Amino acid sequence: MSRAKHIQNKFPEALKAARNARGLSQEAFSLASSRTYVSSLERGLGIPTLKKVDELAEVLDLHPLTLLTLSYLGGKDRKAADALFAQVSRELLEIWKQTR
After folding, report:
1. CB of 32 within 8 A of CB of 56?
2. pLDDT tens readout for residues 70-85
3. Does domain 11-74 have CATH number 1.10.260.40?
4. pTM recorded for the entire structure
5. Cα–Cα distance measured from residue 17 to residue 96, given in angstroms and rounded to the nearest whole number
6. What residue ranges do the domains of the chain occupy?
7. How far apart are CA 61 and CA 1, in angstroms?
C-alpha cells in the first residue's frame, strides 16, 4: 500500500506542546531524563527510543500513542485526527486479517 503524501514526524513540537499543556517544566522529567535531554528532543537534536517515549509519556500522564499521534498530526485539526485514526484502524484490521 503506497501513501499519497510523505508523512513527517514532528516529535519535537508534539513533546513541547504536551509538556506545556500539562504545565510541566523540563525539570519535571528528571526521573525519566535529564533536562538537557528533553531540551535536545524539543529542539529536534535527538531521536527518542520507544522506551524513552514510554517514559516521557508516563511523566506527561499520557498514553504513548497519544504523544506519537501528536507527532504525526502536526496541528489541532480534528478532521486530520479522525482521518489518521481511521487509517490506523484500517491498517490494524488488514494486519490482523493477515495474521489469523
Report:
1. yes
2. 998 866 788 989 988 9
3. yes
4. 0.84
5. 33
6. 11-74
7. 34
